[in-house]
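ok trying again, last paste got cut off:
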Amino acid sequence: ESDTASEISFQFNKHKKTPSIGSHSSDMASVSSVSGSVLSVYSGDFGSVDAQGTVEFALDYDEKNREFQVHVSQCKDLAVVDEKKGRSDPYVKTYLLPDKARMGKRKTSVKKRTVNPIYNEVLRYKIEKMVLLIQKLNLSVWHNDPLGRNSFLGEIEVDLASWDWSNRKLNWYPLKPRSLSAVNGVDHRGVMNLSIKYVPPGSLGKMRPKNPPSGEVHIWVKDVKDLLQLRPSGVDSFVKCYVLPDTSKKSYQKTRVIKRDTNPVFNHTIVYDGFHTEDLKDACVELTVWDHEKLTNHFLGGIRLGLGTGLSYGISVDWMDSTQEEVAFWQEMMSAANEWIEGLLPLRSL
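nice, full thing came through this time. structure:
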């Protein structure tokens, strides 16, 4: 399988465990970082100028090549970023929403020392028309800074479902301040309903035939609600699970694929053995939801269950970043051995 999020690991031989027969195991033999961050539309915005001016562009869909085309012509009367020098170095950037990571960004060249830049460039997306019609186009203008401290100059958002596709002419549109939803970081990706349980070593008593010689973490993935709909027919989703820092094949588990459903019911239980109680401070259960396609799976959202300390076995790692809700859920499991802890957690960008 090929996924749009990459996995990077390096070996860290600590707390090596022996897999037990008949259970999915996590030997936690490597420390890794999962770099699948979905960047904000506004990432890198260091400016505080007010949006002003207009942008001229046209939209078209090439049926033969199955290509969405954004013809960016020019901008007029943009805000001045460097008032001392009276200059802005603007460029135009586009995304298809709601899933920014799926199609990625496109951007024009940078025009230096002008508030009236002329581009005459075409930004292209290879995408099926039916998929395009459930997207929104976010077109924003930015000042380019050599040190990466780019400044937001204005934007326009176009609902492509209601766009008049017979209109292929260049038209002027006023640039607006950023939307409140983006400023407040609203990024609703759905909600996962699950239960987790920790079974400490030997805690079930000597008379129990299945009493684990080492601890076990049980993860019961019940269902997910309100997934991003990437196609008119819905989403073909499945859930991946790793116990970080281990990203080996022994750690990797997944559910079956539920087709054409933005509210999939999985009812799937995963068991990881090899846990000692002290490992719960350094491990992190990562559950990610993916849209399944033949060539590439697309990331929809995920959760990370752990203490969120930023450290794993004394090493600083970026995946120990659990939210307050996720940390509280994990702590409740740690304090209630052998009991199922039920939770409803929002999916997020990882």
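cool. The chain has four helices and 21 strands. Confidence is low (pLDDT under 50) at residues 1-44, 180-186.
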